[in-house]
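Hi, can you check this record?
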Amino acid sequence: MAITTVLRDWLLDSDPSLQWQVERDLLGAPPEVWQATRARVATEGIGAAILAAQDDDGQWAGGAYFPAGYFGSAEAEAPGQPWVATTWALKDLRDAGLDAAALSGTAEKLARNSRWEYDDLPYWGGEVDVCINAFTLATGAWLGVDMSDLAQWFIDHRLADGGWNCEAEEGDSTRSSFHSTLNALRGLLAYEQLTGDASVRDARHGGEEYLLRRRLMFRESTGEPVADFVTHFTYPPRHQYSALTALDHFRDASLAEGTRPDPRLADAVEVVRAARRPDGTWLQGERLPGRTWVTVDAPAGEPSRWLTLLGTRVLEWWDAA
């Protein structure tokens, strides 16, 4: 399905963090065009708002993964969690395409001032949660921190079935999780691309195989759908798995390595295709509850520019192959 003029203009009438990706991935604009748009992330819209909220000590909201004062507060009893602390702010900025130079000095400040809520561990060393460590691995590499020790942690903590699970470190599970595995894969791919360190590639490929054996959506034991979350598309997904976010990773990995799409992705592709509306858009799903610095996308039930970007580029990648 070709992008119509109306759809193109609607996508371009957006925050620079989305606009540059539309120009690069959907419109084939030359680098000087999309790079100029990307440079505006630091001074306009989502990127500028999150940058302006940074604390003097390099953190956001006074905490590593949760804001200062969160535990024991009324907010801790509310649904979801706040998305304003350091890890989430940095992830949002990285996803937006911010130039790391805009955060000059932040890595050093966090090394001095930020500790994980879990056991007061130093920020750049990570902690025990796979998803948190995945976000930290990619963000540290982006900011120029030596993250090789944390990269090795992922190799050492893979489970026997090939993936990862955030509950495994507490002894609550010996089986991998769709959510945890995808977050690990995205962090490992970003780390490899940012640093050129291929030592994590075999572990990443093993985790990808875990999802591919399940065709991104099904239990390997019964062939039944794993859960409703695989077809729940929302942006930003934060830590949450869906067939669309998984396909976006496999697209990234395929383009990075120059490989063709794996045929086992076909079922997930058709789920994404079926969710596309006749006008070429995807609707926002129920958003994850919790406090944010800025509203990134459309309310639930309305056309989502971000999901439309992701869905369109995944289908174009698949169909081109």
Summary: The mean pLDDT is 96. The beta strands are 282-283, 303-304.
